[in-house]
Structure formats: structure tokens, C-alpha cells
From TrEMBL:
Protein name: DUF998 domain-containing protein
Native species: Actinomadura algeriensis
Regions that span the bilayer: 6-24, 45-67, 73-92, 122-139, 145-168, 180-198
Keyword terms of this UniProt record: Membrane, Transmembrane, Transmembrane helix
Length: 199
């Protein structure tokens, strides 16, 4: 089971490393403005689509071992929901908009495709299930420091998700930056949780 836990950690941390490197080197992509999901578009879009799917599968596999390692089926279930939703985010990419890929309309289209709507729904589950998992961990993990860390993570991630929602709806030029900060907080915590369970 230890190998599965480290697999989950690799999935969480690998997701962040991949989108950061890809976003910094992608022609026409502006990490401060554009969301991570937009990386699944364009000629190199396969890389982020694969990032969603592969990391989601690794995290879901790691969740299986959490039930035994931390004696919490509920926590394992919340993490598994998060992982499966990541996979769905990769299977259903968002529509081109807000200037990416280059040549796409700069604004947000009034009508979106079914795959975009499914991507949005998967995203809500992704960003909703992770703070739920952190709250569960605050009760399920016996270590006092981890209880505190999980509670703070849940609060910061929820606030970040709300801030990103506002930034996205208002087409803020810093929407991508807000989303990245939120993702880093949540995914870093999840990877560390897997590592703690494996220790």
C-alpha cells in the first residue's frame, strides 16, 4: 500500500509541476490571465489533457491506500472523487476563449459546447471535493499538527476558489494567477497527506 500512497503524492505534485512548466513555455499562453484548463487546447493541448487524466488516475489509486493507512474510508472516498473529477476534466476540455489559443475570441462566448459545460461541472467537483477532504482529514488524522494544517488548507482553498470564481466571471487579467495559487495550496497539501500516510 505504501507504493500506492507515493503514487498519489506523485500525481498531486506532478500535476502542479507539469502545468507550471507548460504554462511558462507555451507560445501565446499567459499564465497570469489564462486558467490551467486552457492548456488542454491548441497544438500542445494533449500534454495538459494527459496531465489531468494521468494525475487523476494516480491520485485515485493513492486514495485506495488512504482508507487503510489513515483508517478513514470517508477521507479515501473524498480523495477518490477528486481524482476521478480530474480525469473528467481532461476528457472534456474547455472551449477556446479569452484569446487562447491564439486567434480565439478575446471574450467569453454566450453559448458553450456540451464538453465545456461538462468540464465546468467536473471543475466544480474538483474544487469542491478537495476542501471537503481537508476538513475530513482535520478530524480523521490523529496528529495535532496535521489537524491544524488540514483546517487551514480547507479555509485557504475555499477562499481561493471563491476568489477565482469572482476573477473568472469579471474577466480579471489575474484570474489565472489566482487559480494557480489556489491549486498549489490544495495539491501541495494532498501530496503531503499521501506522504504522511506512507511514512
Amino acid at each position: 500500500m505504501t507504493a500506492l500512497l507515493w503514487t498519489g503524492a506523485a500525481g498531486a505534485w506532478g500535476f502542479v509541476v507539469t502545468f507550471l512548466l507548460d504554462g511558462w513555455t507555451r507560445p501565446g499562453y499567459r499564465p497570469v490571465r489564462h486558467p490551467v484548463s486552457a492548456l488542454a487546447l491548441g497544438p500542445r493541448g494533449w500534454l495538459q489533457a494527459a496531465n489531468f487524466v494521468v494525475c487523476g488516475v494516480l491520485i485515485t489509486a493513492g486514495a485506495v491506500a488512504v482508507a487503510d493507512a489513515l483508517d478513514s474510508v470517508v477521507l479515501a472516498g473524498a480523495i477518490a472523487v477528486f481524482g476521478v473529477s480530474l480525469v473528467a476534466s481532461g476528457v472534456f476540455p474547455m472551449d477556446a476563449m479569452r484569446g487562447y489559443p491564439p486567434g480565439a475570441p478575446d471574450g467569453t462566448p454566450e453559448d458553450t459546447s456540451l464538453r465545456h459545460r461538462l468540464h465546468d461541472r467536473a471543475g466544480v467537483v474538483v474544487f469542491g471535493s478537495l476542501p471537503v477532504a481537508a476538513v475530513i482529514a482535520a478530524f480523521a488524522v490523529p496528529d495535532a499538527a496535521w489537524k491544524w494544517c488540514s483546517g487551514v488548507t480547507a479555509a485557504l482553498f475555499t477562499a481561493g476558489f471563491g476568489a477565482f470564481g469572482w476573477a473568472w466571471e469579471s474577466d480579471s487579467p489575474r484570474a489565472g494567477l489566482v487559480q494557480r495559487a489556489t491549486i498549489i495550496v490544495g495539491w501541495l497539501w494532498l501530496g503531503l497527506l499521501f506522504a504522511y500516510a506512507a511514512a
